[in-house]
Amino acid sequence: MSIQRIPDEVIESEILKIRNFFSEVPYKRWKKVLWELYSCYVYQTEEVNSGKENSEMLLLYEDLRRFLKDMNRLNEKMKTNDKKCL
Q1: Relative to the CA of 8, which of 16, 26, 32, 58 has its CA 20 to 30 Å away?
Q2: Looking at residues 34-53, what average pLDDT do you find?
Q3: pTM, whole model, 2 decimals?
């Protein structure tokens, strides 16, 4: 689906979700939380994970970290744009 076909109210709703996500907990804190979740999974589980499971979890962690970084970048650009409009 082309972005031009997405209704404005849907886009505005999603933008608000991104802003709220980072306004309640800053990006650096989210990075730390994500790392803690990954670390706990790898080092604190009662059963021993296979190398494949650990590898898959590391790939998932990296994907989530990049996604979080991209969403933060988008949020910062939106804030900058808001300031320019004022």
Answers
A1: 26
A2: 83
A3: 0.79
